[in-house]
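Figure 2 data, in text form.
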Amino acid sequence: MANKQRILVQAFARHLQAVEESMHQLIPAVERGAEVLLKALKRGNKILVCGNGGSAADSQHFAAELVGRYKSERRARAAIALTTDTSTLTSVGNDYGFERIFARQIEALGRAGDVLVALSTSGASKNVLAAVAQARKQKMKVVILTGAGGTLLAKKSDVAVVIPSRETARIQELHELVYHSWCEYIDAQHG
């Protein structure tokens, strides 16, 4: 096998290893997260999603799956990615600081019974920690997707799905698997 190809094969192997190592360990937390989301949607509440960098993209991806559709045709679900409004992000960042970009939106949009889904591979993002604090203040449920380093963030949640890895790419890949599984679960239960 050529050296260049070996790099690619190793990336796939690390992905498979991360899935194998975490699948049975994570399923109870993934199920609890799915139930929190499902209950909120059934009550007419909404899902607010946030994260930075690749997790910002995942926030948008997850919200889009809920508002649009995942697999089958069904009614839209109330979900908002707090990562998409550049005018709000830049004005709040400028006026209040980058740490408040999500918390300020939660203050405006979040209601008791809504759910914040916060993604942070490190679990140490100050703006995500502030978002969680604001959600708590507003009596929202908090579901966290993080990596092995995210224990501080995980302790502040109702449900934490902690990927047992410190490799950002593997954490992000498994986050996508988790929120896709939530979409399947919600679609199957909530029609």
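Caption note: Residues 3-42 form the longest helix (40 residues).
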